Description:
By secondary structure, the chain is an alpha/beta fold.
Amino acid sequence: MGKLKKIVLFLLSAYLLISTMLYLLQEKLIFLPSKLPSDYTYSFTQPFEEIYLTAADGAVLNGIHFKQKQAEGVIVYYHGNAGDLTRWGNIALFFVEKNYDVIIMDYRTYGKSTGKLSEEALYSDGHLFYEYALKHYDESGITLYGRSLGTGIATRVASQNNPFRLILETPYYSLLDLGKNRFPYLPVQWFLKYPLKTYEYISEVSCPIAFFHGTEDRVVPYNSGLRLFNSVSVNKNKFFTIKGGRHNNLKEFQVYRDGIQEILSPVSQINLKINSDLPGHK
């Protein structure tokens, strides 16, 4: 009996240790920023302006504003969890080349941006850049684009404003949901400081929403994005299934490129048909 008690105590101690380590290290697991020196000079193939916005708590957020002479509109882009604007600025050029202005920010601790991370700070900083866009564009010309981590931020901002449309690439139902799936035997709901419950905010979004998700995504599973899509009315939204698509390669697929072209077409008001590849929506 004494041996059994020791085994139980050992397993309990290990369980508590692992849970404590995850709690302490969660920001290093979720956020993978790279830093840039404050005097770093960006270089892109399209005209741009570097911008700095100051948050209410004094944090300084660095961003890039790509500008066209006669743009079709503007995309406010919320990027994924890794890298900095040297990477994401080049990714944004895909949309600049479609004759859109693009505003893209680095989150706190990323690139040249300063400040302490928190879920509310991510949302408030996202709104800060939306307010910047409103100073330069009519709201009817603003598209919000979220990629991976940024899909939760873009959705929250869209829920509190009236952009023309919202585009979500590899979205998640919630970060809490992802955590529970990845660590099913740990009390993730007790210690996760970044639940990012996208499903709570998406029901308040009034504009059309386009979803893009790959079936082979190993970071944010396809079913997480599909569950988010199914949590809202489908009559004005569209889900693009990228068969064989992974988390970081959707641009390589014609379905994605054609879908973006359709959504961003000047005459498009978001096709009301549901993608025929979507299970349950033939």
